[in-house]
C-alpha cells in the first residue's frame, strides 16, 4: 500500500548506459522544488494534524494513518494488522454497517479505501469540499466508537473476505506464492516482515474477537495517528472541525516504535517454489538500509540503473541482446526496520533459471567492480525525480496527502520533499558503487526461484464454530478503559455545505493544416506536462486473419526510426526524465508521454519521430515477436484475464476483431510480417485520424509552435473508413475454461451493451452504480459483505465506438461458484423488477454527478477525459452537459434502461477454474451444455492456436 518516497517504480522507460556512438545531450538542471505550504499541529490527545490548502479543484483529500502494521503484530497473528484494516469498515457506534460507504459514495467520494503497509495502516477518501465534515465524522467514529458495536458476526465476515483476498492476490496471482517465499527467506521466522502483509489462512481464521479488541485499544488511539487534510479548505475552519470530531476522543496507551534487530544474511539462501505458471522466474533479494538512512537513496538509483526499463543494464543484456529473459525488474523497497533490494527476472521460453542467474550475476559483478557511469546516474535521478513530482499531482489516493503522511511517519517532517530531492540530487556514481559493494554481495542474498508445478497451498476450511454468529461478548477491562464518552450529537450525519461551483476543463482545440487535431489544457500547478498522441484505430481495425496487429504495430513504434535506434529512443527519453509508452485498445492506438516542463519539447520530438518515421527494422520485429509470444504465455497464467478473453470470444464470435485481446493469438503473432505492420501504420497513422492532447504547464502559444514544428510536415491523407464488424455470439449460456489447481473461480457474467455515444449513458451509469459499480452496490453488499464469497465484485459497461460488452466480474470461492452465479443473476433480475428506492437512487446518481471533478485531478486524467471527446465525437461542453443530465435522472429512467439492456436469461456465464469442482455446481443452474474454451479464450475445437 505505502509507496516509498524514492522507490516509486520507474514508469515505462527508465535509463542506463547505451553505448551508442552519439549520445543525447545531458538533461537541463533539475526543476524547481514545488512549495507545499503545510501546517502541522498536535491535538491535546496526541493526534497529529497536517493541513494543506490547495484550490486547484473543489475537492479535499482526507488521509488518516495509524502508525501500526505487521511490524507490531504478535507471533501467531500474521496478517492481523491487515485484517483489522478490514474491521474498521464495519459498523461503528453511530454508523450502521455499510452506511459509511453509502454516504461517502453518495457524496461523490473517490479514492475511498484503506491499505496496510508493513509499518502503517491508512484510511483515505477524496470528497467534494462541501462534504469534508462527512468524511471527518466517519473517520472519527471509527477511531472513537468501533468497539461499542464490534461483534463476532463482523469478524467472521471479514475473515471470509480476507481469506478470499489471499486466494485472489497471493495464491491466484502468478508468482504470488513465490514473492511470499522471498520474504520468508530474507527474514527470520519471527521477524515482523517475514510473511506477506495479508498473513496465512490459519492465522487469519485463528483471530479471536478479544484479539481484535486488544489491537484496537493498543494501537488505534489518536496519539498513534496522523491526519492529513489537503485541498480546497479554509485552515482555520478545518482545525475547528477536527477539534470537534476528534478532540474529545481519549488518548490511547503510548506506543513505542518496534525495536527489532534484523540479522544480516551471511551465507546465500536458496528456495524453489512451484506455482501455476508456465515461465520460471528468479527472485534475488538483499537486506538493505532502512528508509531514509545512508545508502537507501543510492540503492534506489542502483535499482533504476539495473532494471528500471528499456535502457537498464539487465534489460539490455538479458532481454534485448541475449533474449533469454521475458522481463526484468529491480526495486529498492524502503521500510522502517529494514529495506529490501529485489531483482526479479522471468525466463523466455526455452531458457533456464540457471542461465538467468549467471547473466544477472555478471551484471551485478560489473556494477560492483566498475560502478555506473555518471550519465547512468543522471538518468536514474531524472526519472525518479519526475516520478516523485508526478505523485504530487493527485490530492488523494497515493498522491499528495499520502506523501505527506509518509514523510511524517518516517522522518517526522511532512515537508521533507525538498530534503528528499536534495539527497537524490547529491548522489553520484561513486556513491552508487559504494552502496552496491556494501549491500549487494553474492553471499548476502536470498535466491527464490518460481517454477511450473502444482502449488503447495495450505487453505483449510473454516470450522463451523468460527462461522457461528454470537452475541457481542462483554468487553474486557482493557477495552472498557479505551471507550469514549457518549456524545448523542454524533448519531446525526453532518449536513453538507453549499455545493461548490466547478468549471470542468473543455480543452482548447485547434487544427494544423494537415488535419491533425490538437487539444490543449493549461494547468500550471506543477512543472509537468502530459500528452497523448491518439490514433482513432485500434484492435477493432485488425484484419480478420491477424488479431493483435494494431497492438504489434503500436509496440513497434518505439523500436526504431530513420534516425534513432530502439536503444537511442529509450536512452533519450530516460535521459530527459520522461516516461513514454505506446499501446492499443479496441478503439485507439496511443503514444503517451509524461515529462517535466523543461524537457517537454525534446521529449515531444521523440514522440513525433516514432509516430511519423518508424522504420520497423526486421531484427526488432523478431525481438518483439518473441516478446509478444512470451507475454501471451504469461497472460494464460492469469485467470481474470482468461475470463475476460473468453467472454469477448463468446460475445463477439470467432473472426470478429474484438474477440481477442490486444496480443491476439499465437498463430497471428507468428504470421505477421513487416509488410503487415508497415501497412497498418501507413493506413491508420495519418493526421486526419489523430489528435495530440496536451495538458500541463504549457501555454497555447507554446503548444501551437511545438505542434507545428514537430507535426506540421506529417503528410496529409484521408482517414480510413472503418465499418464495425458484425458480432456473431455463441449460443451457449455457459462457457468454461478448465484450470486445474486454480485457487478460486474467475467469473464473468456478460452480455452486449451499447456504444459510448448512446443517449442512455447517464441513466446506464446510475443503474450500473447501484447494481455493481460502487463498493456499496447490491452485488458487492450481497456477495462480499453478506455472504463472504469474494474479495470484491463489480460491474461495468465498456462503451466503445460500436456496441460493447456489459460484464459482472468477480473471483469467488471455488465451493461457492454456483451460488455466486445464482446471486449475480438474481441481482440482475431484481434491477428490472421495481424502481430504486429514493435513497438508493440518490446515492447512485450523486456518486456519478458529484465525483465528476475527481476525473480531472491530474494532467493524465484531464488528457484522458479530453481524449474521449475526440475519440467518440462528443461536444466540447460534453462534461458540463453530462452533469446536468445526471442530475435529471430518475428512478423510472433507471428501471427503463435496466429492462432494455439487462436480461438475466440472455447473459453468458464464463467460469475459469477447476472444472471437476465447479461444473457440477454450475449444471444445477439450468444454463445448458457448457462450451469449453482454452486459456486464450478460444473454443477448444478451433483448428489452431
Instruction: Report mean pLDDT, rounded to a whole number.
Output: 92
Please list the strands of the largest sheet in the order they lie side by side.
1-2-6-3-5-4
Distance between the termini: 39 Å
Count of beta strands: 23
Q: Kindly estimate the percentage of residues that lie in beta strands according to DSSP.
A: 15-25%
Percent of residues in helices comes to 25-40%
Sheet of most strands: 6 strands, mixed
Kindly provide the radius of gyration, computed on alpha-carbon positions and rounded to a whole number of angstroms. Answer: 27 Å
| Helix-and-strand structural type | alpha+beta
Q: Based on CA inertia axes, which overall geometry fits?
A: globular
Number of helices: 33
Unreliable stretches, pLDDT < 50, 5 or more residues? 1-29, 465-482
Outline the structure in words.
Residues 1-29 and 465-482 have low confidence and may be disordered. The two termini are 39 Å apart. This protein has a 6-stranded mixed β-sheet, with helices on both faces. A 6-stranded mixed β-sheet has the order 12-13-17-14-16-15, sandwiched between helices. The protein has 945 residues and is an alpha+beta fold.
Amino acid at each position: 500500500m505505502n509507496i516509498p518516497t524514492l522507490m516509486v517504480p520507474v514508469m515505462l522507460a527508465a535509463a542506463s548506459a547505451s553505448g551508442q556512438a552519439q549520445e543525447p545531450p545531458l538533461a537541463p538542471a533539475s526543476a524547481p522544488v514545488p512549495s507545499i505550504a503545510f501546517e502541522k499541529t498536535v491535538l491535546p490527545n496526541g493526534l497529529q494534524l497536517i493541513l494543506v490548502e490547495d484550490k486547484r479543484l473543489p475537492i479535499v483529500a482526507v488521509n488518516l494513518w495509524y502508525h501500526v502494521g505487521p511490524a507490531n503484530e504478535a507471533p501467531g497473528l500474521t496478517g492481523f494488522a491487515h485484517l483489522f484494516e478490514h474491521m474498521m469498515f464495519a459498523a461503528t457506534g453511530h454508523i450502521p454497517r455499510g452506511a459509511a460507504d453509502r454516504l461517502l459514495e453518495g457524496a461523490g467520494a473517490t479514492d475511498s479505501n484503506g491499505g496496510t503497509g508493513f509499518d502503517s495502516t491508512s484510511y483515505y477518501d477524496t470528497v467534494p469540499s462541501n462534504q469534508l465534515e462527512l468524511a471527518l465524522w466517519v473517520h472519527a467514529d471509527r477511531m472513537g466508537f468501533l468497539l461499542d458495536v464490534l461483534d463476532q458476526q463482523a469478524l467472521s465476515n471479514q475473515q471470509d473476505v480476507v481469506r478470499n483476498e489471499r486466494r485472489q492476490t497471493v495464491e491466484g496471482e502468478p508468482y504470488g506464492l513465490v514473492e511470499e517465499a522471498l520474504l520468508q527467506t530474507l527474514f527470520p521466522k519471527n521477524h515482523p516482515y517475514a510473511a506477506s502483509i495479508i498473513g496465512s489462512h490459519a492465522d487469519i481464521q485463528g483471530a479471536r474477537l478479544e484479539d481484535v479488541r486488544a489491537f484496537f485499544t493498543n494501537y488505534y488511539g489518536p496519539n498513534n495517528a496522523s491526519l492529513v487534510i489537503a485541498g480546497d479548505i479554509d485552515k482555520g475552519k478545518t482545525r475547528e472541525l477536527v477539534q470537534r470530531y476528534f478532540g474529545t476522543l481519549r488518548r490511547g496507551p503510548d506506543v513505542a516504535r518496534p525495536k527489532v534487530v534484523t540479522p544480516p544474511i551471511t551465507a546465500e539462501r536458496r528456495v524453489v517454489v512451484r506455482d501455476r505458471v508456465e515461465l520460471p522466474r528468479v527472485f534475488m533479494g538483499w537486506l538493505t538500509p532502512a528508509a531514509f538512512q545512508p545508502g537507501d537513496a543510492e540503492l534506489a538509483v542502483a535499482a533504476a540503473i539495473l532494471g528500471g526499463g528499456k535502457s537498464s543494464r539487465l534489460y539490455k543484456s538479458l532481454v534485448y541482446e541475449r533474449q533469454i529473459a521475458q522481463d526484468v525488474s529491480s526495486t529498492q523497497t524502503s521500510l522502517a526496520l529494514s529495506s529490501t533490494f529485489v531483482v526479479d527476472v522471468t525466463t523466455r521460453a526455452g531458457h533456464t533459471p540457471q542461465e538467468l542467474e549467471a547473466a544477472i550475476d555478471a551484471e551485478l559483478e560489473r556494477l560492483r567492480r566498475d560502478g555506473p557511469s555518471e550519465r547512468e546516474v543522471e538518468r536514474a535521478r531524472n526519472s525518479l525525480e519526475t516520478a516523485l513530482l508526478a505523485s504530487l499531482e493527485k490530492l488523494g489516493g497515493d498522491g499528495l496527502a499520502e506523501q505527506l503522511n509518509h514523510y511524517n511517519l518516517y522522518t517526522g517532517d511532512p515537508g521533507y520533499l525538498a530534503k528528499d530531492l536534495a539527497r537524490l540530487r547529491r548522489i553520484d556514481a561513486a556513491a552508487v558503487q559504494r552502496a552496491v559493494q556494501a549491500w549487494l554481495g553474492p553471499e548476502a542474498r536470498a535466491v527464490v526461484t518460481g517454477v511450473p508445478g502444482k502449488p503447495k497451498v495450505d487453505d483449510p476450511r473454516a470450522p463451523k464454530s468460527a462461522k457461528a454468529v454470537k452475541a457481542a461478548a462483554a468487553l474486557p477491562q482493557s477495552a472498557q478503559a479505551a471507550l469514549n464518552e457518549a456524545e448523542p450529537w454524533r448519531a446525526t450525519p453532518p449536513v453538507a455545505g453549499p455545493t461548490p461551483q466547478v468549471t470542468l476543463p473543455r480543452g482548447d482545440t485547434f487544427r494544423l493544416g494537415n488535419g491533425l487535431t490538437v487539444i490543449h489544457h493549461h494547468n500550471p500547478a506543477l512543472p509537468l506536462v502530459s500528452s497523448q498522441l491518439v490514433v482513432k484505430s485500434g484492435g477493432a481495425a485488425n484484419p480478420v486473419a491477424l488479431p493483435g496487429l494494431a497492438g504489434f504495430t503500436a509496440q513497434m513504434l518505439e523500436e526504431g526510426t530513420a534516425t534513432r535506434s530502439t536503444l537511442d529512443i529509450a536512452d533519450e527519453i530516460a535521459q530527459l526524465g520522461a516516461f513514454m509508452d505506446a499501446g492499443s485498445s479496441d478503439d485507439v492506438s496511443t503514444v503517451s508521454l509524461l515529462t517535466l516542463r523543461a524537457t517537454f519539447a525534446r521529449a515531444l520530438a521523440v514522440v513525433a519521430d516514432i509516430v511519423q518515421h518508424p522504420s520497423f527494422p526486421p531484427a526488432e520485429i523478431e525481438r518483439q515477436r518473441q516478446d509478444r509470444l512470451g507475454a501471451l504465455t504469461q497472460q494464460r497464467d492469469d485467470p481474470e484475464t482468461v475470463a475476460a478473453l473468453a467472454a469477448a470470444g463468446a460475445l463477439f464470435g470467432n473472426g470478429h476483431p474484438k474477440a481477442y485481446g490486444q496480443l491476439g493469438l499465437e498463430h497471428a503473432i507468428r504470421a505477421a510480417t513487416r509488410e503487415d505492420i508497415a501497412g497498418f501504420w501507413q493506413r491508420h497513422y495519418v493526421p486526419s485520424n489523430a489528435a495530440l492532447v496536451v495538458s500541463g504547464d504549457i501555454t497555447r502559444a507554446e503548444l501551437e509552435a511545438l505542434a507545428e514544428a514537430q507535426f506540421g510536415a506529417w503528410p496529409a491523407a484521408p482517414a480510413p473508413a472503418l465499418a464495425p464488424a458484425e458480432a456473431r455470439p455463441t449460443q451457449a449460456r455457459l462457457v468454461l475454461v478448465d484450470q486445474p489447481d486454480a485457487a478460486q473461480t474467475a467469473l464473468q457474467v456478460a452480455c452486449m451493451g451499447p456504444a459510448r455515444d448512446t443517449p442512455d449513458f447517464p441513466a446506464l451509469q446510475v443503474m450500473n452504480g447501484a447494481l455493481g459499480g460502487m463498493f456499496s452496490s447490491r452485488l458487492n453488499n450481497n456477495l462480499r459483505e453478506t455472504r463472504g464469497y469474494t474479495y470484491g465484485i463489480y460491474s461495468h459497461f465498456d462503451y466503445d465506438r460500436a456496441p460493447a460488452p456489459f460484464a459482472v466480474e468477480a473471483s469467488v470461492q471455488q465451493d461457492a461458484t454456483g451460488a455466486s452465479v445464482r446471486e449475480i443473476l438474481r441481482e440482475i433480475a431484481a434491477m428490472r423488477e421495481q424502481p430504486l428506492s429514493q435513497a438508493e437512487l440518490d446515492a447512485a446518481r450523486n456518486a456519478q454527478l458529484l465525483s465528476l471533478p475527481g476525473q480531472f485531478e491530474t494532467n493524465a486524467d484531464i488528457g484522458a477525459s479530453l481524449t474521449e471527446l475526440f475519440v467518440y465525437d462528443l461536444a466540447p461542453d460534453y462534461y458540463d452537459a453530462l452533469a446536468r443530465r445526471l442530475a435529471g435522472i430518475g428512478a423510472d429512467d433507471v428501471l427503463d434502461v435496466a429492462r432494455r439492456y439487462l436480461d438475466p436469461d440472455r447473459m453468458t456465464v464464463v467460469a475459469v477454474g477447476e472444472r471437476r469442482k465447479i461444473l457440477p455446481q454450475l449444471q444445477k443452474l439450468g444454463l445448458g451444455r457448457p462450451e469449453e474454451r482454452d486459456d486464450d479464450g478460444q473454443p477448444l475445437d478451433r483448428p489452431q492456436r
